[in-house]
Design a protein that fits this description.
Structural class: alpha+beta
CATH topology: Beta-Lactamase
Number of domains: 1
CATH architecture: 2-Layer Sandwich
Order of helices and strands: HHEEEHEHEEH
Strand content: 15-25%
């Protein structure tokens, strides 16, 4: 998996998201993956790669979202069973296939993004999966710093669409 080269070629947030969603799913052998950006007090689900639709294009209050929790606490959220974790908004997850997840913040001091990996059955993320997503988050942080946030969802020129 050469995500270093793929992320190095990304020239926009959408291009970063496109690379990250695929690599997150692949590196964790997950049934789905998302790329989420912090938008002040909201989490914006920019892109996803999953066996069924999740939340692409939707915004959730940062305080009520597991990606928000990971960004606010600057630490990964490991959730082997979403039905018993108080951080999970059950109403948002009930219509999805998700039973377990790993949510990794992107950025160490003040994370501006998160990467989620999701499983359709109960799954305890392995140390290798956590390490893979941590490495991807570190490289994603470098890519976001390089491309900047000018085409972020809150910017006037932002439109969901094809990566550039």
């Amino acid at each position: 998996m050469d995500f270093y080269a793929s992320l190095a070629d990304a020239t926009s947030i959408l291009a970063v998201a496109d690379v990250v969603r695929h690599l997150a799913r692949e590196s964790c052998r997950a049934d789905g993956a998302t790329f989420v950006l912090r938008e002040e007090d909201y989490c914006f689900y920019v892109d996803e790669d999953a066996i069924a639709p999740l939340w692409k294009g939707q915004r959730f209050p940062i305080e009520t979202c597991i990606s928000g929790w990971a960004m606010l606490h600057a630490e990964p959220a490991v959730v082997p069973d979403i039905t018993i974790d108080e951080r999970i908004p059950q109403a948002a997850y009930r219509p999805t296939f998700v039973k377990s997840l790993l949510m990794m913040p992107v950025g160490s001091a003040e994370p501006a993004a998160a990467i989620g990996a999701y499983w359709a059955s109960r799954h305890q993320p392995t140390s290798a999966e956590i390490a893979n997503l941590t490495a991807l988050a570190n490289r994603t942080d470098e890519a976001l710093q390089r491309v900047g946030l000018a085409d972020a969802p809150w910017a006037p020129n932002f439109r969901l669409g094809q990566p550039s």
